[in-house]
Amino acid sequence: MVLDYIKRVDPEVAGLIDAELKRQQTTIELIASENFTSRAVMDACGSVLTNKYAEGKPYKRFYNGCDNIDKTEELAQKRAKKLFNMAHANVQPHSGAQANMAVFMAVLKPGDNVLGMDLSNGGHLSHGSPVNFSGLYFNVKSYGVDENGSLDYDDVLKKAKEHKPKLIICGASNYSKIIDFKRFRQIADEVGAYLLADIAHIAGLIAGGVHPSPAGFAHFVTTTTHKTLRGPRGGIIMCDEEFAQTIDKAVFPGMQGGPLEHIIAGKAVALLEASQPEFKVYAQNIVKNAKALAQGLLDNGMEIVGGMTENHLMTLDLRNTGKTGKDMANVLECVGITANKNTVPNDPRSPFVTSGIRLGAAAATTRGFDEFAMREVAFIISEAIKNSENKEVLEKLREKSLALCKKFPLYETMKEG
Questions:
Q1: Are the CB atoms for 1 and 328 separated by under 8 Å?
Q2: Which residues are catalytic?
């Protein structure tokens, strides 16, 4: 990696960055919330825009000298609105959780009723977890999935009628099926609630046309930009025009000060990339690869929550193996595969141990992995779990994963010096 300036000033940090590049190049990334940005996105994020303070909205700043900043942020806004067919976009949130927080601040008061997806069933911390702001300051009730790992929309309606929430949240951090945004809007309308669609995980799939869009159904749409959208780490809020001013005020001065304009520039680049025809092919390949990985796991005797995936991710159910998600995620790292422990529905184990492992195909697809390669990955995962205490087998599996990494190189033009 080109680290000339950092090496001169801080060789210790330069060494850690270079070591991380090597780790990414020599491991298969299956964490569903991670991806690899383009060099163009990284260039934007490392640009001189990091030097500029720009509190406020474009052309309404509290600081002078923001002409170029205003144009850059406005460009990101326009690209987000066009890509997701939404009337208004605020690209300043530092993360998806903060984007959700801004929606809460915009339309709710502390103690208001909210209906969101249960964390252990695939929801997100910011959808009402008791340890998160959403659960600490609001009265959150939860819905979940059935025994097949699918949303039970009749149960969502039942709970909405019972609790009469002011806000209903749909979207998930670990749900492998298509989300019916139209049905959620019908439920929200029936009880007089606002609808927030958190598309953090599926934004790239929506942009690529392989998952239905919440546009026209959700009052508010929030997303991260660093998962399937393949951009920098950050968030975006989109909404109907009638909520634009309220949302903008919730972001600033409600919960943030100066926006990270270098990251917003990276968002703008990523949004442009996601609007290109080749991104549609990429999104299609993500789903194909995820299905190939899932089928490969099933063929090798593994169990998956819901049986099959319809998007980019899946949860490996380890309950029949007697092994834990925590232990097996560590075993997978030993064989060169990075994944994360995750609860399964009605998990008997704690969130710190878990009975499952979440797997995603977006990052591997960015590297160029195809369906055949993903089936080989499925074999490595299955054998590693079955032989988790056999060092000789694990060493051979590490060789297989390393061979795949060499076949599908990552950032190979990033040379030192």
A1: no
A2: 53, 55, 198, 224, 227, 233
